[in-house]
Specification:
The complex is a heterodimer.
Chain A: H1 8-19, H2 21-47, H3 51-58, E1 64-68, H4 75-81, E2 87-99, E3 102-103, E4 112-116, E5 128-132, E6 140-144, E7 157-159, E8 168-176, E9 184-186, H5 188-194, E10 202-209, H6 215-228, E11 234-239, H7 240-252, H8 255-282, H9 285-293, H10 298-339, H11 348-375, H12 378-383, H13 394-401, H14 407-414, H15 420-453, E12 462-465, H16 496-505, E13 509-522, E14 529-535, E15 545-548, E16 556-560, H17 561-567, E17 574-579, E18 582-592, E19 601-605, E20 616-621, H18 627-638, E21 644-647, H19 655-689, H20 691-699, H21 704-744, H22 751-754, H23 759-786, H24 789-794
Parallel strand pairs in A: 4-9, 6-8, 14-19, 16-18
Antiparallel strand pairs in A: 1-10, 1-11, 2-4, 2-10, 3-7, 5-8, 6-9, 7-8, 12-20, 12-21, 13-14, 13-17, 13-20, 15-18, 16-19, 17-18
Helix pairs in contact in A: 1-10, 2-8, 2-10, 2-11, 2-19, 8-10, 8-11, 8-15, 8-19, 8-21, 10-11, 10-19, 13-14, 14-21, 15-19, 15-21, 15-23, 19-20, 19-23, 21-23
Chain B: E1 3-12, E2 22-30, E3 34-38, H1 45-53, E4 60-65, E5 68-69, H2 75-85, E6 86-89, H3 101-111, H4 116-130, H5 145-157, E7 163-167, H6 175-190, E8 194-198, H7 202-208, E9 211-216, E10 219-225, H8 226-229
Parallel strand pairs in B: 3-8, 3-9, 6-7, 7-8
Antiparallel strand pairs in B: 1-2, 1-4, 4-5, 9-10
C-alpha cells in the first residue's frame, strides 16, 4: 500500500508522478547522477584522509619490524620479547632473506626482501591479499602489489638469481603490507631453501607497542628489544614512522586534487537537486489550486507535493548510490595504487550519509514551495497560469528586442529574466560544470607536464653505457644498466674517452653529453646526497627550472626545492660538495623541478671533480637518422671496448599520473553531465510553462527551427555567463591546488607545469559553458518544436 | 471566382477507431467573402479552423488555402504559410504578456524576416487604424478585453494576410467591447479582407458575415448567403 494511502491523496500523488513522465524521469536521472557524483566525491575525500594511517590501523601494522640473527638468539629468547613491557601485540618469528630476482625477459627487478609466512593473516601485519592466493608450497611466491605490472602478473615466473641453476618461483598472488614488512612472501621452508652464505636467513619479528607515536618512543621501544637479546643479535629495525613519512609524501600530493573534485561534486549535487525539486513543485501551482478547490486541506496539498518530488528523487537516490558504488570501485582501486595501501572501499557511512542528505535536500527543496502552495489562496492558485503575467523580465524583452538579431533569438535571450531563481540555479550548474572542466583540463595538462619534466635524461634518443664507478673506488652511482647484453654477467666498463671518440666518429651524431651519478656529501646535510654530474653541453638533458638557470659551466650547481629547504639556502649561495676525495665549493645557480631522492639531489659539472668520469653518454641523433639503426652501429664499435649502446624508447607516463588523469576525466564527465541534466530539467520546466506562449508564436508563423532557436537562446546567455564565471574560477582553483599539491610533494613547480592554459584554450573552455547549456536544452527544444500547435494553444 | 479556401472531402478523426470530429466536408470560400461558422459545442468548428490555419492536418481529403495545398506541407513550410497568408484572432487574445503592445503586433512580421523599420511602420499604421497608438508601450495585462482584442487583430493583420481567421473573437468580451470588435471586423470585411469567423454570437455573424455555415456533429447542416444571414 502506498504510504499516502489508497485514497484521494495516494491517487493524486500517483497521477502527479505518472502524468509528468518526462519531468519524473529527468528528476530521477539527474538525482541519480548527482548522488553518484556525491558518493564518488565523498569516497575520494574519505580515502584521501590519512590513507596510510587507516590502512596501517586496519592491518594492525607493526610499529617496529625487527630482524634478528638466528645464530645469536634462541627461539625462546624471541618468544620472550613478545612479553616485554609495552609490547601489546607481536608476530613472528618469520624466516627472512634477500633474493636478486631475474624476470622472464631477463630484466633485473630490485633485490627483494623475502619473508616466510604460512598465511597472510596474523595479529600484527594482517596482510591484504589483493589478487591470486597465498603461497602454499615450494616454488611459489606472493609479491607486494607495488610490483604488479604487465610484465609481472599472477602466473609470471622469477628466477631467484642470475645463476643458471637458480630456482624458479611462480607468482601466485599479490599482497599489500601497509607497514611494508617485506617485498615478497613464500612458505617458511622455501625461504630457508633460498638462503645462501651471502644472503643468510634472519628472523623477522613484528611488534606493536603501547607507546609508539614519536621517534623517541620508537627508539625507546627499540632499546627494550636490544636489551632483551644478546649483543649483536638484533641486526636491524624498521620504524613505521619512516614508512608513514614516505607514504604520506606520495599520497599528500593527491589529497588537494581529491578534495577539490570532491567538494565540487558535492556542492553541485546539492544545487542541482534543490533546483530540480523546487522547480518541479513550483510549476504545479495551478493543479494545487484545483486540489484545494475540491476540498484538499493545505496539509494534504503539502504532503502530496513533497511526496510527488520524493518518489522520483527517491528512485534516483537509490540508483545513484548503486551507480556511485559501481563507478567508485575502479577509481578506488586506482587510488589504492596511488596510495600503495590496503584495499579501499566506499565507506559504509558514505552510502548512508549521502542518500540521507540527498533526501533531506529533496525534502526541504520540495517543502518550501509546497508550503507556499499550501498557503496560497485557492483562487490565486487557480488563477496562476491563466492570468496575464506581469512584471518580471519585461524590461529584458524590451532591451533584447532592440538587438540586431532574429526575433526568435532575442525573445529567447530575454526569457531567463522571468524566473530569476531558476535562472540562478541553472547558472550555478553551468558555472560549476565549467569550473570542473577548466580545472580538469588544467590538471591533466599539468600532470602531463610533470610526466614530461621527470627524468629528462630519458629524452635522449640513444644511450651509450660506459659503466664503472664515477670515481675510482666510488659507490658506482645510480645508473643501472637494465638490459645487459645477453650472456653478460657483469655490468659494462669501458674507457670513457674511447667511447666519446667513437660517438664523435659515428655518422648521424647530432649532440651528446656525458653523465655520471654518484652519492656525494654536502656540508650541512647528514647522510648522502645523489649527485648527477654532466660533461659537455647538457642542455638537452636539463631539468625544468623553477628559478635561476641550468648549469653552464664548472663551479655551478642546480638543486631541487627539497635541497634548498633542507639546507636553508637560496640561489646565489654556495655549498661544499664532496665526491670521493674531491671537495668543491659550488654556487647554486638554479632551482630545478627534480623530485627524485626525496629532493636530496644536486646537478653539477663533471669538471668540478677531477677524478670523476662519465658513466653514460646521452646522444641526440640528426634528423632522419633512426635511433635504433644508430645504436646498432655504435654498439658494434663500443661493445668490444666493454661498453654498451641502447636506443631509448619514449618513456611511459608514471602510473600515478595516468590514474589521476583517469579520475579527473571521469569526474569531470560526471559533473558536466550533472550540470547538463540540471539545465535539461530547468528547460523542461520552462518550456512546459511556456508551451502556450510557444503555441501562440507557432500559430503566428514561428517555424520549428525558430522555436529551437528560441529555446536554445534562452540558455545561451546563461551558458556564456556560466563560462565567464566558471573559467576564471577553474583557473583560480588550478592555480591554488597545483602549488598545494607541489608543496605536499616537497617541491615548488616550474612555470611549464603551472602555466598550462593558453588563450585559445580558455576561450574554448568558456564555450564549454555554452555547450553544457545548449546540450542540456537541445532535447526540450526539440520537444517544443514538435509540440502540436493546436494542443499547445489549448493548454492553460 | 477565386477561392481562398477549398476543402475537398476533408475529414478529421482524433482517434483512429473513433467517430469523425469533422466531415467528410466540401467547402469553398471566395476571396473577399466573410464566412461565419456556427454550431453547438463539439460540432467541429475549431477543428475546421485549425485545418484551415494549418495547425492540424486532416485524416483524409485536401485543404487548399490561397492556392496552396497545405495538408501536404512540412511543419516548416506550414509555419511560413501561416506567417505569410494567415492572420489569427483568438477568443482569449493570446497576446504575449512579456511583450509590449507594439512588440506583440510586430512579432509575426519579425518572424517573417520583415526589416525592422518596415515592421515598425506597419505596426504604427495598424495601431493608428485601430486607435491603439497611445497604448503602444503598454503591456497587455494593463489593457481592457476590447483593447487586447484590437491588439490581437492588429497583430493578425501585420503581414497583410490573404485570410483572417477569428475564433470566437467576442467570446471573452463585455457587450461594449464586443460591439467595438464587431465594428472592426465589419470594417475589415468592407475593405475586402477575406474572413472566417467561428462564433456562437449570431449578432456577430449577422453583422459581419456575407455567408454562414452551421456545423452539427462535424457535418455541414446549413449554408446561407448574406441576405439569409441577415
Amino acid at each position: 500500500m502506498s504510504p499516502f494511502g489508497t485514497g484521494a491523496l495516494g491517487r493524486v500523488v500517483r497521477s502527479g508522478v505518472g502524468r509528468r513522465r518526462v519531468q519524473t524521469v529527468v528528476i530521477a536521472v539527474a538525482t541519480m547522477m548527482a548522488v553518484a557524483a556525491a558518493v564518488i566525491a565523498g569516497s575520494l575525500i574519505v580515502v584521501s584522509n590519512a590513507p596510510f594511517d587507516h590502512a596501517f590501523a586496519k592491518q594492525h601494522g607493526p610499529h617496529v619490524t625487527a630482524q634478528f640473527d638466528p645464530a645469536k638468539v634462541s627461539a625462546a629468547q624471541l618468544e620472550a620479547t613478545k612479553r616485554l613491557a609495552g609490547v601489546t601485540a607481536s608476530a613472528g618469528p618469520y624466516p627472512s632473506t634477500t633474493i636478486s630476482p631475474v624476470d622472464s625477459e631477463g630484466g633485473h627487478p630490485p633485490a627483494l626482501s623475502l619473508v616466510g609466512r604460512s598465511g597472510p593473516h596474523g595479529d600484527v601485519d594482517d596482510l591484504d591479499l589483493q589478487s591470486g592466493r597465498w603461497a602454499t608450497k615450494p616454488g611459489e611466491v606472493v609479491l607486494s602489489a607495488s610490483f604488479k605490472s604487465p610484465l609481472l602478473e599472477v602466473g609470471s615466473t622469477l628466477k631467484t638469481s642470475d645463476a643458471t641453476d637458480s630456482p624458479t618461483l611462480k607468482v601466485v598472488g599479490f599482497a599489500v603490507s601497509a607497514g611494508q614488512t617485506a617485498d615478497a612472501w613464500a612458505t617458511p621452508g622455501q625461504v630457508g631453501a633460498l638462503a645462501s652464505k651471502d644472503t643468510p636467513v634472519t628472523r623477522q619479528m613484528l611488534y606493536r607497542f603501547d607507546s609508539a607515536g614519536t621517534k623517541a618512543q620508537i627508539s625507546a621501544d627499540r632499546e627494550k628489544l636490544i636489551a632483551a637479546v644478546s649483543s649483536g643479535a638484533l641486526l636491524g629495525t624498521q620504524s613505521y614512522l619512516d614508512t608513514k613519512r614516505a607514504a604520506d609524501t606520495g599520497a599528500a600530493a593527491t589529497i588537494p586534487f581529491m578534495v577539490a573534485f570532491g567538494v565540487l561534486g558535492i556542492v553541485m549535487s546539492v544545487i542541482i537537486i534543490s533546483s530540480l525539486i523546487s522547480g518541479a513543485v513550483g510549476t504545479s501551482l495551478r493543479r494545487i489550486g484545483i486540489l484545494k478547490a475540491i476540498g484538499f486541506t493545505p496539509r494534504e496539498v503539502v504532503r502530496a507535493y513533497v511526496a510527488q518530488a520524493l518518489i522520483p528523487a527517491g528512485a534516483g537516490i537509490a540508483l545513484g548510490v548503486v551507480l556511485g558504488n559501481v563507478l567508485a570501485v575502479p577509481l578506488l582501486e586506482d587510488t589504492e595504487q596511488v596510495y600503495g595501501t590496503a584495499s579501499l572501499t566506499v565507506a559504509w557511512w558514505v552510502d548512508v550519509v549521502v542518500p540521507a542528505v540527498a533526501l533531506l535536500v529533496v525534502g526541504l527543496a520540495a517543502l518550501v514551495p509546497a508550503l507556499r502552495a499550501g498557503r496560497l489562496r485557492t483562487v490565486e492558485a487557480i488563477a496562476i497560469g491563466r492570468a496575464p503575467r506581469t512584471g518580471r523580465g519585461q524590461w529584458a524583452h524590451r532591451a533584447a528586442g532592440r538587438l540586431p538579431l532574429p526575433r526568435a533569438v532575442t525573445y529567447g535571450l530575454a526569457s531567463p529574466f522571468a524566473h530569476p531563481v531558476r535562472t540562478a540555479a541553472m547558472l550555478l550548474a553551468v558555472a560549476f560544470g565549467t569550473v570542473a572542466a577548466t580545472f580538469a583540463v588544467g590538471l591533466t595538462s599539468s600532470l602531463n607536464a610533470v610526466g614530461s619534466a621527470s627524468d629528462p635524461e630519458d629524452r635522449a634518443a640513444v644511450t651509450a653505457v660506459v659503466g664503472g664507478p664515477t670515481v675510482p673506488g666510488g659507490a658506482g652511482g645510480g645508473v643501472r644498466h637494465m638490459n645487459p647484453a645477453a650472456g653478460s654477467d657483469s655490468p659494462p666498463s669501458a674507457d670513457p674517452a674511447k667511447v666519446r671518440a667513437a660517438i664523435e666518429a659515428q655518422a648521424g651524431t647530432a649532440s651528446y653529453y656525458g653523465m655520471a651519478k654518484d652519492d656525494v656529501t654536502v656540508a650541512g646535510i647528514s647522510g648522502s646526497v645523489q649527485a648527477t654530474l654532466y660533461q659537455g653541453d647538457s642542455r638537452p638533458g636539463s631539468y625544468e627550472m623553477i628559478s635561476g638557470h641550468w648549469i653552464t659551466g664548472a663551479g655551478q650547481v642546480v638543486v631541487p626545492t627539497g635541497f634548498l629547504d633542507r639546507t636553508a639556502t637560496k640561489i646565489g649561495d654556495k655549498v661544499r660538495v664532496t665526491l670521493g676525495k674531491d671537495t668543491q665549493t659550488l654556487k647554486i645557480v638554479g632551482e630545478a623541478f627534480d623530485t627524485s631522492n626525496d629532493g636530496l639531489s644536486i646537478h653539477a659539472d663533471l669538471a668540478d671533480f677531477a677524478g670523476a668520469k662519465p658513466q653514460v653518454f646521452q646522444i641526440e641523433v640528426k634528423p632522419g637518422v633512426s635511433p635504433a639503426a644508430y645504436a646498432e652501429k655504435l654498439h658494434a664499435v663500443v661493445e668490444p671496448m666493454g661498453g654498451d649502446v641502447i636506443a631509448n624508447s619514449p618513456s611511459q607516463q608514471e602510473g600515478m599520473i595516468i590514474v589521476l588523469d583517469a579520475i579527473a576525466v571521469l569526474l569531470t564527465l560526471m559533473l558536466v553531465s550533472v550540470a547538463g541534466l540540471g539545465v535539461l530539467n530547468s528547460v523542461v520546466l520552462d518550456t512546459r510553462e511556456r508551451v502556450h506562449d510557444l503555441g501562440v508564436c507557432k500559430a503566428l508563423g514561428m517555424s520549428p527551427r525558430q522555436t529551437v532557436s528560441l529555446v536554445l537562446a534562452s540558455v545561451a546567455g546563461i551558458g556564456v555567463l556560466g563560462g565567464l564565471i566558471g573559467v576564471p574560477l577553474g583557473f583560480a582553483l588550478h592555480g591554488f591546488v597545483l602549488p598545494v599539491m607541489g608543496h605536499a610533494a616537497g617541491t615548488n613547480l616550474p612555470p611549464s607545469i603551472l602555466d598550462v592554459y593558453d588563450a585559445p584554450q580558455l576561450v574554448l573552455l568558456g564555450l564549454a559553458g555554452v555547450a553544457i547549456a545548449v546540450l542540456g536544452a537541445l532535447l526540450p527544444a526539440g520537444w517544443a518544436a514538435k509540440a502540436r500547435t493546436a494542443t499547445a494553444l489549448r493548454t492553460e | 471566382m477565386t477561392h481562398v479556401i477549398e476543402l475537398a472531402g476533408v475529414a478529421k478523426r482524433y482517434d483512429s477507431a473513433g467517430a469523425s470530429a469533422l466531415g467528410p466536408l466540401d467547402l469553398s470560400v471566395a476571396q473577399g467573402e466573410a464566412l461565419a461558422v456556427t454550431g453547438p459545442s463539439g460540432s467541429g468548428k475549431s477543428t475546421l479552423l485549425n485545418l484551415v490555419a494549418g495547425l492540424d492536418k486532416p485524416t483524409e481529403g485536401a485543404v487548399t488555402v490561397a492556392g496552396q495545398r497545405i495538408d501536404q506541407l512540412s511543419e516548416h513550410a506550414l509555419a511560413r504559410f501561416r506567417r505569410d497568408r494567415i492572420g489569427m484572432v483568438f477568443q482569449f487574445f493570446n497576446l504575449l504578456d512579456d511583450l509590449t503592445v507594439v512588440d506583440n503586433i510586430q512579432l509575426p512580421a519579425q518572424l517573417a524576416g520583415t526589416p525592422r523599420r518596415k515592421a515598425a511602420a506597419r505596426a504604427d499604421e495598424l495601431m493608428e487604424l485601430l486607435g491603439m497608438t497611445k497604448h503602444a508601450r503598454a503591456y497587455p495585462g494593463r489593457l481592457s478585453g476590447g483593447e487586447r482584442q484590437r491588439v490581437a487583430v492588429a497583430r493578425a493583420l501585420v503581414n497583410r494576410p490573404a485570410l483572417l481567421l477569428a475564433d470566437e473573437p467576442t467570446g471573452a468580451l463585455d457587450t461594449a467591447s464586443g460591439h467595438d470588435v464587431r465594428e472592426l471586423l465589419m470594417e475589415l470585411h468592407r475593405g475586402g479582407q477575406t474572413l472566417v469567423l467561428v462564433t456562437h454570437d449570431m449578432a456577430l455573424a449577422e453583422a459581419c458575415a456575407s455567408r454562414a455555415i452551421q456545423l452539427v456533429d462535424g457535418h455541414l447542416s446549413l449554408d446561407t448567403r448574406a441576405e439569409a444571414v441577415r
